[in-house]
Amino acid sequence: MKNQLSKGKIDTYSLSLKYRQASVDLENRKILITNFQGTEQEKDFKESANCNGFGRIRHFEISGSNSWPENPLPIEPARKALRLPPTSTLRAQVFQNAVCNWRCWYCYVPFDLLSANQKHSRWLSASELVELYLKQVNPPPMIDLSGGQPDLIPEWVPWMMYELISRGLENKVFLWSDDNLSNDYFWKYLKKSDIELIRTYKNYGRVGCFKGFDEISFSFNTMANPNLFYNQFELMKKFLSLGIDLYAYVTLTSPTDEDIDSKICSFVDKLQELDHYFPLRTIPLEIRVFTPVRSRIDNFSSKAIKNQILAVNIWQREIKSRFSDKERSIPIYEVPVGVAC
Question: Which domain holds residue 208?
Answer without folding.
Answer: 2-334
